[in-house]
Write a structure and sequence with these properties.
- This protein is an alpha+beta fold.
- Among the domains are: 12-23 and 34-46 and 221-272 and 317-406, L,D-transpeptidase catalytic domain-like; 77-217, no CATH class.
- The chain is built from 16 helices and 14 strands.
- Strands 1, 2, 3, 4, 8, 9, 10, 11 and 12 form a 9-stranded mixed sheet that branches. The protein has a 3-stranded antiparallel sheet with strand order 5-7-6. It has a two-stranded antiparallel ribbon with strand order 13-14.
- A hairpin with a 5-residue loop joins strand 13 (410-412) and strand 14.
- Helix 9 packs antiparallel against helix 10, helix 10 crosses helix 16 (428-435) and helix 14 (364-374) packs antiparallel against helix 15.
Amino acid sequence: MTRFSGKLAGSAAIAALLANAALAQSAAQPAAPERPVLQQSEQQGGPARMEMPTPREAFEQAFPQAEPAPLVQAWAAGQAAQLVAVIEGIGAEGLDPNDYDLQPLKVALASGPSNELNQLASQSFAWLVEDLRDGRTPMDARTQWFVIDPDRDIYRTGDILTEALASGDIAGTLAKLSPTHPDYARLRAELAKTPAASTTKRKLIRANMDRWRWLARDLGTQYLITNVPEFQLRLTVKNRIISTYRTVVGKPGRTATPQLAEVVEGVVFNPTWTVPQSIVKGEGLGARALANPAWAKRSGYAATKGANGYVSVVQQPGPGNSLGQMKLEMPNEHAIFFHDTPSRHLFANDFRALSHGCIRTERALELAMTMAILGKGATKDEAVAISTSGKYQKVVLEKQWPAYITYFTMASDINGEMATFKDIYDRDAPVLASLDKPRVRERSNVVEDEVIVIEDDLQDS
């Protein structure tokens, strides 16, 4: 993990980060195509961004799917006995053996191979797949959780069942569904050493293990991940932390930061800020800027009034811009993104749930330049020149970065130590409550929570 200070992260800081990333990456990398052109301001009609397939589209293109295998298949007695053993030990994964019809399965197994055994074993196996792959927590207990998990399409239940029965390795096949992120294994180990009498701690561990299953099993080789209650962002390559950054996240309530899995497509240096109408109209900024052009210019605002009377105000790039010196282009329906801030003193606070939902990032220029270079959108010299130009410029990334906005109240901290974090948005309660209830058998994977579109951050909020 590397930290740097200074006004410009354009020399030793970037060089060290790139060196760390190169060490973490695999030695065998495919040849990179020609680097995309740097985009000028949107008003100047720069080239259109490169269209990249989503992870799901890329998987479907690379591995065309055959018809799904049947959900009920024939079980030999020995295979069913293995399944019974898996269920009896499933508590190690933070799940409850009572959720998987263990006793009826044992009764059917005692009678030998039969249609009833095939039905019960296939059903219990399917429930295990669903919980290990997708998580046990039903959607209505996942507050402001909007991640689309591709694992249901990649690891189809019938196909996993076919693989398990063909190989004869029931436990090993199911184990392949576990999240690959090291923190899942660490939580599993923490659960194993926590006494059964420590019920509150065990439930918290189980809840956070399940949160890992809500995400894709494999997060990728190169990504950003932020744990909102920890107020930290990690730049990660092959599950190795290259650098960490303090964050300021959304205030509790309607401006709480949601949980997302999106893709950073570009880096905007010296961004403009389109002021939301709640400020332009609601707080009178538009009228003031139009009435006093000299004040507006000094403050960096450009106000226009349309023929229909609609007033728009755009804050120009500069040291006082509410988005600071950069933002990461991450299109999503919530209008959430990572950005800089002129109010950098807030990073010294212990409690940093202070924004309108977007994530303000410490040493944001260092992060922006590193991503632009690693994403092959710019060379180091180009990134330095763009960042110091004072002019709006968007760098399109050739290698797009997955970005995960997560919510863990027990996890490894940035020093690698297992820690608990304050449940700042009260999102633990419904997850913990679901662990005390019987498993929901007919579960939807459709997100039904309200989408709250976040208005861009205010400078001093």
